[in-house]
What we know:
This protein is of the alpha/beta class. It has a single domain, classed as Rossmann fold. It has helices at about 15-30, 60-70, 85-95, 120-130, 145-150, 160-189, and strands spanning about 1-5, 35-40, 75-80, 105-110, 135, 140. Strands 1, 2, 3, 4, 5 and 6 form a 6-stranded parallel sheet that branches. Strand 3 (about 75-80), helix 3 and strand 4 form a beta-alpha-beta unit.
Amino acid sequence: MKIAILIGxxxxxxxxxxxxxxxxxxxxxxxxxIDLIDLAETPLPMLEERVGKHPQLPQVxxxxxxxxxxxxxxxxxxxxxxxSFSGVLKNALDYFYSEFSRKVIGIVTVSAGKFGGIxxxxxxQQVILSLGAFALPTKLLVPEVYxxxxxTHELTNEHTLRSAQKFIDDFRWFASAIxxxxxxTTVNI
Length: 189
């Protein structure tokens, strides 16, 4: 199974990439193929038109479209900004639709406060459903992100470690179930 992890933050001093790299390492250890998509390294122009409708689609958008199409499931990682998910992630999501169709999408949010980005996670869940995707009911919320990792970016917060394990277990189960069903449907056609 191929999993895309989409980091939806480009801000200087960002913290969300720490949990993205943690998840990448854990999922790769489970022999999954991980494509880490960092929007700071793959900057997209402001949306003028969606994939499939744009008369001269920027190459970077086409490449990201191809990467997302090839993923069996996606994990979206975002900080909470002003009670919502990041604008750069929203801009990226607005480009695509079929790339997410009928895929499991896990939500991971981080915040400096105690609530771990719950507002961003809830709003992102609504957008995921609008994309025709399946939002994983279990969300991974990383509260007080500045203290959750040590100096070498290892996750040290016990509560977040337990939450991350539950998220990974639930994500793998749900993504595998959907992938299995898709394969059955393809075979029966």
